[in-house]
Request: fold
Amino acid sequence: MAKKTVDDIQVKGKRVLVRCDFNVPMKDGKITNDKRIVAALPTIKKLIADGGKVILCSHLGKPKNGPEEKFSLAPVAVRLSELLGQEVVFANDDNVVGENAKAAVAAMKDGDVVLLQNTRFRAEETKNGEAFSKDLASLADAYVDDAFGSCHRAHCSTAGVTAYTSPNVAGYLIGKELSIMGKALENADRPFVAVLGGAKIEDKLNVINNLLEKVDTLIIGGGMAFTFLKAKGYEVGKSLLDESKIDYCKDMMAKAAEKGVKLLLPIDTVCAAGFPDPIDGPVETTIVDSDKIPADMEGLDIGPKSRELFADAVKSAKTVVWNGPMGVFENPTLAQGTLAVAQAMADSDAVTIIGGGDSAAAVEQMGLGAKMTHISTGGGASLEFLEGKTLPGVACLDEK
Ligand code: ATP
Reply:
């Protein structure tokens, strides 16, 4: 369902509360990477240009017992002022919507920007409590959500507040996530290929199930592939294995066959005597066919034949969605499989979507980010999207 965006509303003279994702990495009170702040600029600039009174809010980190100096958004206000080239007033209230915030908002002129303190300084935030939702809404006439990474959570600032604000619309970041990933899942250009990897199969059970309804080819690599290989009757040595999911994998293989979906598993595997320690330390490897993994070895990456098989499938696609690395990519010796998939996606002219988290980090690390159609800004949120779940932070936005 298409959602209204900042392009669909008039904000001149209105107080607009914008939920941003300013959950930036910090060290010793300094922002170490401002990408998320930069990513929020288009929506903020649009609202300023349209004459809105722009009130920003976000969480930062995981404060446990209320306000904590190290989780203050003060450094974000400073950086944002520099990037916007105008003052961002930081309303420093321990209870987020306090005297400072109220006074700052009351003094706003059209085009001014105020940043509220970390929403998680209020314990009710993550419980979607009514009082804090109402407090936030009391500052605003309209609400814009641009924090895709948080919209799979029903919190006060992502969902609760919208019961008391109107209109409620998406910012450009969420708008892009919804249109690109939504199209891929509802109406993909075909062939549609999904690539899943990562360590734990448990995390992606529902994703596998949902994607089998949508894709032409499902590629499974990484640690989760070994439970599938075991389900095929192969021995997997010391590789990651979830015994409790073997039957599930059998069901998924049967479902793929029934739906005519090609399910590709690694045909060869890069093995070592054990998991590298440290993770990026030296490791001696051998390559074996996936049905011949020795009992005393652990599979840690897909082998060269699998790389070619997977890359060919990716290259023939018109839409590719990827979530999770093909091996222990943190180690250069075991990063070849992940690199091969990333490179095949970068070389293809398909719509290429990276589902956040480790895969996004791997693609950026390899310098291939600019070659992808879309890198999702939310790992957990994009996974739930791929699962076919309704995201609470999206469900509460106005429909077009
Ligand atoms: P994403 O963030 O892209 O969604 P993820 O974080 O959900 O991926 P995880 O399930 O956390 O994925 O798996 C990522 C981890 O999987 C990486 O740290 C990687 O080292 C590990 N991994 C990949 N392949 C293997 C393997 N064969 N054996 C053990 N660990 C593996």
Notes: The pocket of adenosine-5'-triphosphate is lined by residues 198-200, 203, 222-223, 240, 299-300, 323-325, 327-328, 330, 355-359, 379 (CB under 6 Å). Residues 192 and 215 are 5 Å apart (CA to CA). The chain has 13 helices and 17 strands. The chain has a mean pLDDT of 95.
